[in-house]
Design a protein that fits this description.
The complex is a heterodimer.
Chain A lengths: L7 H16 L3 H14 L4 E8 L5 E6 L4 H9 L7 H9 L3 E2 H7 L5 H9 L5 E5 L8 E9 L6 H26 L7 H11 L4 H8 L3 H15 L4 H10 L5
Antiparallel strand pairs in A: 1-2, 1-5, 3-4, 4-5
Helix pairs in contact in A: 1-2, 1-7, 2-7, 4-5, 8-10, 8-11, 9-10, 10-11
Chain B lengths: L8 H15 L4 H15 L3 E10 L2 E11 L3 H9 L7 H8 L4 E2 H7 L6 H12 L4 E9 L4 E9 L6 H23 L19
Antiparallel strand pairs in B: 1-2, 1-5, 3-4, 4-5
The chains are: A alpha+beta, B alpha+beta.
Chain lengths: 244, 200
């Protein structure tokens, strides 16, 4: 990718989105990311969804600001089956303009679907996603507007950030699906001493338990908080307002 | 989150190229190239990534995962003489695994003046490893820590270099776990890859 053709502001926003994706943990975080990307590609509306790996079916939609009425109709009528954007994404797994999808699927029922969508102001757009054979989940990120101003530059922006927001979406949806439990009192105690910079061994001495038990607690803490290291776990706990 | 607006356009280009490089890694050679790229962005002359086994708050073993410029002879010495037992950098990172300059670590090292520590630091100096920046990512499940070090004879590693490394770290770590270390949940993961391969 030739990054030098982007402005400094665009590059800065791209890096922000990547960093937000790395630390993303909730649906609200995802909405924050899609909102930022929507601004970057000058769209009016944004939505993203997680799909099943081997079909067009969407299993989780995270809506930033697509009209609620449209979202309800889309779900009730199972429009994912006749949405040319979903189909194009599933079969090509690359960033594309809606007009590319509409050119490829220029017959019914796809044209009828697009006419319906345009009634809600969803007339033109740019989308991207990752759909690879054998993958458990697919993703789609779609940004739309009433006017047709999307171009190759917007596609390039999506091309850069899609792998990162794809991982973020999967991680958030996985977190929702796992049986998330709060930290136990002992785990909070261990976390508190981790925050003080104590090693596993030091914590075991302080709490009067075996080091093996401390490691067990540390592992559980990391899993529950989806942290990559102790520092990350502490940061997540503090971000979530946990008292440690 | 590091403020991206702190970077110039050229710095942003370099950082994003490095992130892309790390994300696209499929082989060990790819990861080495990504590590080299990170080294250039940070402004270091040498870079190395390694894995430290941890137990009882101490580093019990070190393996060099990928060497991107560290003098091969120093790496051989480091491993054969078990310098990790004395190296204030890995010992400190084992407790506080976040990005720090070597100068900051040495200030906090209680036995910095001891003969063994001075020997290791002095040997590193002989190989041009005077100033450095290191960071770690702790994996409690495997009881090990991935370490990334960037060094040079002249560069003073400060706020800017730390910010760059903080931005790149998780991308480099993911790439390293994916293509160098590989999946696995057993202890003793230091044996998962050929140590001899590291000396390239």
């Amino acid at each position: 990718m030739d990054y030098s053709r982007f402005t400094k502001k665009e590059l800065s926003s791209i890096l922000d989105v990547i960093q937000m994706s790395v630390s993303c943990r909730t649906e609200d975080d995802i909405i924050g990311i899609t909102s930022k990307v929507r601004e970057m590609v000058c769209a009016d509306n944004a939505v993203c969804a997680l799909g099943e790996g081997d079909s067009l079916k969407l299993i989780k939609i995270v809506n930033q600001n697509y009209p609620d009425e449209w979202k309800a109709i889309y779900a009730a009528e199972e429009y994912f089956k006749i949405d040319p954007i979903i189909r194009f994404n599933f079969e090509n797994s690359r960033e594309h303009l809606w007009t590319e999808a509409m050119d490829l699927y220029g017959e019914e029922p796809y044209t009828g679907f697009m006419n319906k969508a345009s009634e809600f102001g969803l007339k033109y757009g740019v989308a991207s996603g990752i759909c690879r054979p054998g993958q458990k989940n697919t993703s789609i990120f779609s940004f739309s507007a009433r006017t047709n101003h999307f171009d190759e530059h917007h596609k390039s922006i999506l091309g850069i950030i899609t792998p990162h927001i794809h991982q973020a979406l999967i991680r958030v949806c996985d977190l929702r699906y796992t049986d998330q439990k709060p930290l136990s009192p002992r785990e909070k105690e261990v976390l508190k001493w981790m925050k003080e910079g104590k090693t596993n061994w030091e914590v075991s001495v302080i709490l009067g338990i075996s080091e093996r038990t401390v490691k067990f607690h540390v592992q559980n803490i990391s899993c529950k908080l989806n942290a990559v290291n102790k520092t990350h776990a502490i940061a997540i706990a503090m971000d979530n307002g946990m008292e440690i | 989150m590091v403020r991206s607006s702190d970077f110039s356009k050229q710095e942003l280009v370099s950082i994003l190229e490095t992130i892309e490089s790390a994300g696209a890694c499929c082989t060990r050679a790819d990861f080495k190239a990504a590590l080299h790229k990170a080294r250039e962005v940070i402004g270091a002359d040498f870079a190395v990534s390694g894995v430290c086994a941890l137990a009882g708050g101490k580093v019990t073993g070190v393996d060099i995962a990928v060497n991107a410029g560290y003098p091969a002879e120093f790496v051989k010495l480091y491993l054969s003489e078990h310098y990790y037992r004395v190296d204030p950098v890995v010992r400190h990172l084992a407790k506080y695994s976040f990005t720090q300059s070597w100068a900051e670590i040495f200030e906090k090292t209680a036995d910095a003046g001891s003969a063994p520590v001075r020997h290791v630091v002095g040997t590193a100096l002989d190989f041009g490893l005077k100033h450095g920046l290191s960071t770690g990512v702790y994996d409690p499940g495997r009881e090990q820590m991935n370490v990334f070090s960037f060094a040079g004879p002249g560069t003073i590693f400060g706020g800017y270099q730390k910010k760059v490394l903080d931005v790149l770290l998780l991308h480099l770590n993911k790439a390293m776990d994916r293509v160098v270390i590989g999946p696995g949940d057993s202890k003793g993961s230091l044996k998962r890859y050929n140590r001899l391969q590291a000396l390239d």
